Amino acid sequence: MQGMSVEEISRATRIPISSIERIEGDHFDDLPGEVFARGFLKAYARAVQAPVDEILARYTASRRISYVTPTPLSAPQGKRSPGRRVGVAIAFVLLLILFTVAISIVLRPRGQGAPRELSMQAPNAPALVSSAIVHVG
Questions:
Q1: At a CB cut-off of 8 Å and minimum separation 6, what does 23 contact?
Q2: Per the domain annotation, does 73 fall within a domain?
Q3: How many domains does the chain have?
C-alpha cells in the first residue's frame, strides 16, 4: 500500500522477512504462533499505516473459520505413567532408610550417660548370679 519493500518493512518492524511474506500472502497458519502473529500484525499495520483494529479483526475472523480445537497433550488425570510410580516408590524407600538411620542414631545407647553401677556390673554379672544361687541354697 505504501510502496515499501519487504526489506524496509522488516527493518522498520523487526519482523523476519519470511513472516512478512506470509502476512502479505494471508498464510497466517505458517506464522510462529497466535501471540506472535498478533504482534506481527500490529507492527505491520503500524508500519504501513493501516488501521490496527481492522487488521486484527479480519485476522480474528479468518481464524474463527479455520480454528480447530487442539487436543490436550498431557496424559489423562486418572491414569499415571509407570515411570512416575517407580519414582514415588524409590523416594518412599529412600525416606524409609533415612528415617531408620535417624532413629538408630537417636536411640543408640551411650556409655557416658549410663550409671556407673550398670557399666561395672556387666563383666561381673555371672559371678553375682552364681553367688546369688549359693546364698539361696
A1: 15, 31, 40, 41, 44
A2: no
A3: 1
Residue 118 lies in a domain: no
How far apart CA 127 and CA 69 sit, in angstroms, is 89
Written as nine digits, the cell of 54 is 481492522
- Amino acid present at 101: V
- When pLDDT is averaged across residues 110-118 and rounded to a whole number, the result is 62
Q: Is residue 13 part of a domain?
A: yes
The C-alpha cell of 34 is what? 497466535
Q: Please give the helix or strand (H or E) that residue 15 lies within, else none.
A: none
CB 38 within 8 A of CB 59: yes
Rounded percentage of the chain residues whose pLDDT exceeds 90: 12
- Angle between helix 34-47 and 52-66 (nearest 10): 150
pTM here is 0.44
